[in-house]
Design a protein that fits this description.
The complex is a heterodimer of chains A (about 300) and B (about 240). Chain A is mostly helical and about 300 residues long. Chain A has 12 helices and 4 strands. Chain A has a two-stranded antiparallel ribbon with strand order 1-4. A two-stranded antiparallel ribbon of chain A has the order 2-3. Helix content of chain B is about 35%, strand content about 25%. The chains are: A mainly alpha (about 300), B alpha/beta (about 240). The interface between A and B is medium-sized, with 24 and 31 residues.
């Protein structure tokens, strides 16, 4: 029982990171019907931006003196990484995807894979291919409840992710841009007829999705201790599966999918074998594609004529 | 501002080299209802799409409220004060009726204007009032058409382009929609109406153009066209030989 609770807590924490990344996949897919394979690399760049900006803010001095990194500096790191990734996302859209937007669907897909490979290699060139230890933006504090260990890091991951998802929900539901995003995802030409600058909304979608992935990158670094330039490959794929599981194009679906993939991974590691933790995601992908290809919360669209 | 609300001259629209609209010149004066009638595939919808630049035109010119729209992005054309109610309604089925109306007000966000226009929608189509928080995808075809027109009005347009508003609707609903079109025109909004229902189109419009395979075959006052033998033939569903 204790072990089960422990795995669930760890699973929800990991899953909330997947959910943050999955949101970017699902938002872009919802509007452009494009699987943005470079999204995992945006997540990676987010993690590295966090790494370097924490360094620039003098985190090593705090570590050397065994002092906690101030929370406000941690927030600056988070915002810097999110802003940088947003800019990167916008640039990727502008330089790589916009020129092929009206091409057959295979073209943007191959372009996305190309951008992904480019960023992986650029990352190895710029950041070095060696894994880096992630700076202790939060120093770990352990709490124990009835034998279940909860760290402040796991809690922070969950809370930060939850706040960002709530923020996204409000943004999408309440703002003009958010409403425009939902309109675009239903019918892009009809959205143009409302006077919506669709290029601008697509740009915002990439910015928001990328910023969330960057937050995921920092949280991932805190959780997993090390980062490397290829970290976006497997994690990105898992988050993509999370988006498919939830129903690609559906924002609540991405959240549910992310949490479920995180749980499945932890429970597999805990009860089956740690070696199967990565495989379980793809077992889920195969099952969902066989049994419910539209995903858990995806809708099959029926239009009235 | 003076001059026509809409002026097309020698408009040509092609899809991959095939011309859907070969040569269309027409004008709509401010405050008029003008109909564009013709059979399926005559190019009527392509004319409307070219006006808002959802498809670019290959040749000719389109002047909307005095401005040449060539090369403008669609949202820029809409900003000039034109609204297209597209064929098939194109309402946002994933959003509520209220949100659909709000999207119509995307360029007209002033709270007072939104409230006034929403009230006008409900007055024009009381059924929308009952369905405000319902998902628009669950509306009937007629209600969707009402929503599409109401949504277009939210922007306070000067010119409305209506693409086959009667399509697929029960006769009593068609009557209701056409009554609302007349009412909208009476409020000073210029209307270009594309219709296959020639009888109704000639009833509400002051003037009409008849489109045959991408060209204007006939045009004139609705009253004259109604008595034209070629139009009478068309009522029977035979092709018009211009």
């Amino acid at each position: 029982m204790t072990q089960l609770l422990q795995q669930i807590i760890n699973g929800l924490s990991l899953g909330s990171i997947y959910a943050l990344i999955a949101l970017g996949y699902t938002m872009v897919y919802g509007i452009l019907k494009l699987i943005n394979f470079a999204h995992g690399e945006v997540f990676m760049v987010g993690a590295y931006t966090g790494y370097y900006s924490a360094g620039a803010l003098g985190i090593s001095a705090y570590e050397a003196q065994h002092r906690d990194f101030p929370v406000y500096l941690g927030l600056i790191v988070l915002v810097t990484a999110m802003a940088t990734a947003a800019l990167l996302g916008v640039l990727i859209e502008l330089l790589a995807y916009r020129p092929v937007r009206n091409a057959p669907r295979l073209t943007p897909l191959i372009t996305a894979i190309g951008v992904s490979l480019f960023l992986q290699n650029a990352g190895m060139l710029l950041f070095s291919p060696n894994p880096q230890r992630y700076p202790a933006i939060l120093s770990e504090v352990r709490f124990e409840f009835f034998g279940v260990i909860v760290t402040n890091i796991k809690l922070t991951i969950f809370v930060v992710a939850l706040c960002l998802m709530l923020g996204l929900h409000l943004f999408v539901q309440k703002t003009w841009t958010g409403r425009a995003m939902r309109a675009l995802s239903f019918n892009i030409d009809a959205a143009k007829l409302m006077g919506i600058d669709t290029d601008n909304v697509i740009r915002s979608t990439f910015a928001v999705g990328s910023a969330l992935a960057a937050a995921g990158g920092i949280l991932f670094g805190l959780d997993q201790i090390t980062i490397n330039p290829l970290m976006g490959v497997l994690t990105g794929l898992k988050a993509f599966v999370a988006a498919v599981l939830g129903g690609i194009g559906s924002i609540p679906g991405a959240v549910v999918g992310g949490l479920l993939i995180g749980l499945a991974e932890q429970l597999t590691a805990g009860y089956l074998s740690a070696e199967y933790r990565d495989a379980i995601t793809f077992v889920i992908l195969i099952l969902i594609l066989l049994l419910k290809p539209e995903g858990l919360l995806g809708v099959v669209r029926v239009e009235k004529v | 501002m003076s001059g026509p609300a809409l002026e097309l001259s020698s408009l040509r629209v092609s899809y991959g080299g095939i011309a859907a609209v070969k040569d269309v010149s027409l004008s709509v004066q401010r405050g008029e209802i003008v109909s564009l009638i013709g059979a399926n595939g005559a190019g009527k919808s392509s004319v409307l799409k070219a006006i808002v630049q959802l498809v670019p035109h290959a040749a000719g010119s389109v002047r909307v409220l005095g401005k040449d729209v060539r090369g403008l992005a669609s949202h820029r054309v809409v900003e000039l004060g034109v609204a297209l109610v597209p064929e098939g309604r194109a309402i946002f089925g994933n959003l509520s009726v209220r949100e659909n109306l709000l999207l119509g007000a995307f360029l007209n966000r002033d709270a007072a204007a939104i409230e006034r226009n929403r009230a006008r929608s409900v007055q024009l189509f009381p059924r929308l009032g009952e369905r405000m928080d319902q998902n628009a995808g669950t509306l009937s075809g007629g209600e969707q058409q009402m929503l599409a027109i109401a949504r277009a009005l939210m922007a306070d347009p000067k010119l409305i382009l209506l693409d086959e508003p009667s399509l697929g609707l029960a006769p009593n609903l068609v009557t209701q929609i056409f009554e609302s079109i007349v009412e909208i025109a009476q409020s000073g909004i210029t209307i270009l109406l594309v219709e296959q229902n020639t009888r109704l189109a000639l009833q509400v419009a002051q003037r009409a153009y008849v489109l045959v395979t991408g060209e204007v075959a006939l045009s004139g006052e609705s009253a004259e066209l109604r008595d034209d033998p070629r139009i009478r033939e068309a009522y029977l569903g035979e092709a018009i030989e211009a």
